[in-house]
Amino acid sequence: MLNENSINNRRNSADFIGKLLLITGMVFVAVFLILLVLSGASLSEFVLYIVCAVAYVFLPGYFLKKILKADYYLPDFDITLDFFLGTALLVLTYCIGMLISAIWILKVIPLCTGLAGLFLLFKKSEKNNIRTLFGIGSKKIGTRLLFFLVCALIFVYGWSGVVKYTHPSVAGEVIISQDFLFNVGNAESFGLSFPPKSIQYSGIVLKYHFLTEMICYCFSYITGITCYNILAFYQQPVFLLVLVFSLHNFGLFYFGNKYDKRKSEVLSLVFTFSMFAFGCAGMWALLPNNISPFGNSSIAHLVTNINSHTTAVIYLTVFTALYLQAAKNRFDIKAVPFILTELAIIMLTFAKSPVGAIMACAVIVTVIILAIGKKASLKGLVFSLILSGTFFLILLTVFSASASDNLTFTAIGTLYRSCFSGIVWKITTFYPTLGKITIPLLIILHTILNLPASQTLFYISGIKKIKSLFMLEAPELISFSASIGGLIVYYIFEQSAASQMYFFMMAIFFINLIAIDEGNGAVERLKKNGFKYINTLEKIGTVIVAVGITIGLITAGFSYVNLCGSGLRRLMTNYDIIRKFPYDCIATDEDEAAAMWLRENTDASQCMFATNRIHSGTSKEGISNYYTAISGRQAFVECIKYTCNDAEMNSYKLSVLNTIFSEDSTPEEIVNVCHENGITHILYSTQYAGCVEGSNFVISKAFDCVFDTYDAKIYVVPQE
To answer: What is the pLDDT of residue 1?
Structure first.
């Protein structure tokens, strides 16, 4: 009777916790919806976007999954496979439509496939999938935890993203996020030409990883919602949903090969939460601006999808799982899993090319070690070479000579960007010989401080496993290969915009897997022996790991306080509850109106505007990319830093702008230079002269003004 009462109490407790998680999650979502409205978004647009996502991505993906029997190869990846295959069909249809000048098929083919998927879904055997969709109908505490995590992340995104992307027409003026606007402009560029060209810099083919933006444009074309609204307000909640379930599904797959169902479920939940709960050792240092003193901004990137980190992790789970499944079958690969794995590396590379680069190398290292250990044959080597070759083919043909390729080989570049910069400078300047010893030690210390909750266990596991390297199975090999490869590239290369950080943030995925696996073994040993009866070295390790986990959790807490707190401050600023700080980098309602005038009154295929408001490397660089993001119209040049490294071309572009926006130019000279460069409109900002001097006095004499406000003016260049 006592045991039965105990079991009932546990069930009642679990049921109460589950209901509490569900209700709290719903409150989080309700707050998010309120923030949408307060930021100038539309609830009807949001509903339209969700319906479109289901009809054009999840249902088509579901249909393809069933037809290809992809869930047979990855049985725990239901929602992830739906998203993976659905987005693949969506972007493939877009590409074909643009190539044959029949973009209208984008509205037809995925929808027809989705209707076929809906038919399959409503078959009697599939009704349970509807009832338990996304875990809402499930009473399992683990599923409720995942649902709660999704809702909590959406809530955080409401403050860290939605509020900060508020329309100026609502707030009067807003502070600009340069990276976000760059991505919005890239999304708009897919409606102008194919292959897409840089909307911020005429004449340059877009060579930045752009899958997130391509998906965004597809939704924009289908629904009529602007790319700005989709990226700012509607897309990320769906991506966060898929991300959380992708992490959990991959955890089940990864740990399910070693442990029973209950253990793998627990470890998978720990892994999923670890991606959002383990920060660096910065703790309160992140409170003012959420900038890590060690460079780890993974949590913010996952929550907000800055530069497609969220998207990349989703496809990373699919590719890695498919490859590991192939390795488990000794690379005896049939046609369908081969096609799926090839498709996964393609989608991963277009989502985030640095992640594709590391994985392309990791599969080669993995298969070589497996072959030495007689766990892979020539088939495995050929398969891995095809996968890595696919990445390098895409890199050379699509992303070659991009502006982000300016990686510099250096052993101290990353350390110089951290709080260790002073120490590194002293060592390299005054003690160069000593630096050969201390720099590697500083790198190891830096990695631990970058992720204290996992790195110690990661190093412990690595030291233990190195002795039996050739006996390891594929999951551990690819995890070590990818994480070590990511760390190496992170420290031996430097990029002008610090983009080497993405190599480390990708490595976190695998580092956490290894650390959790090693931590599970340590917990089992502690349960068996007790803390008092383990040796001194293990006691020290246990304390270090416990301290690291505590620090990581505290840092994550401060990160979320900043993400939500800064959003709250921005919301209060937007609604004049607190005084607006006189920021330089702002966009006003008049700037938005000017950009919208271009959008509504010009032909996208004919319009090219020149503006004096461009990126110039000055303290006001954040104001670039605004007009292209809102208008969706081609700029002669609006941004230099992320678009072109050609000094000669940049010099020419700036000389043209100097001619247009100069008091010394004659009207005839301005007209001629506009005609020579295909410029149809001039958008003059009174807030900022950019890198050129002058005013709109001469321009106003030469051209008709079609939009005239204090902050922005638009002039039409007369036809020849």
So the answer is: 47
pLDDT of 563 above 90: yes
**By three-state DSSP, how is residue 494 classified?**
strand
Distance CA 481, CA 359 (A): 9
- The DSSP output letter for 581 is P
Q: Is the peptide bond before 195 cis (omega within 30 degrees of 0)?
A: yes
Give the residue from 293, 309, 232, 577 showing the smallest Cα distance to 445: 293
Give φ, ψ of 643 to 5 degrees. -115, -40
Q: What is the pLDDT of residue 136?
A: 43
Can you tell me the mean pLDDT for 427-439?
77
Give the integer Cα–Cα distance in Å for 613 and 696: 13
Cα distances (Å, whole numbers) of residue 245 to 128, 548, 575, 613: 18, 26, 36, 42
Q: Which of 88-97, 471-480, 581-590, 612-621 has the lowest mean pLDDT?
A: 612-621
The two structure tokens encoding residue 333: 């690969």
479: tokens are 């995890």
User: CA distances (Å), 325 to each of 67, 242, 479, 480, 551, in order?
Assistant: 19, 21, 14, 17, 35
Could you tell me how many residues make up the chain?
Answer: 720
pLDDT computed for residue 58 by the predictor:
94
CA pair distance 147, 631, nearest whole angstrom: 37
**What DSSP assignment string belongs to 85-147?**
HHHHHHHHHHHHHHHTT-GGGGGTHHHHHHHHHHHHHTSGGGHHHHHTGGGTT---HHHHHHH
At 149 the pLDDT is 95
**CA separation, residue 152 to residues 273, 353, 530, 551, 560 (Å):** 12, 29, 36, 21, 11
Residue 693 has what pLDDT? 47
Higher-confidence residue: 120 or 619? 120
CA gap 514, 455 in Å, rounded:
9
Query: Bridge partners of 609?
Result: 635, 681
For residue 320, give both structure tokens. 């890695």
Question: Is the full-model pTM beyond 0.85?
Answer: yes
Looking at residue 499, what DSSP letter applies? T
Residue 94 has, within 13 A of its CA and on its CB side, a CA count of: 26
H helices present in 373-412, as ranges = 378-397
Burial 322-333 (b: 16+ CB within 10 A, else e): bbbbbbeeebeb
Distance CA 268, CA 271 (A): 5
The arithmetic mean of pLDDT across residues 415-419, rounded, is 73
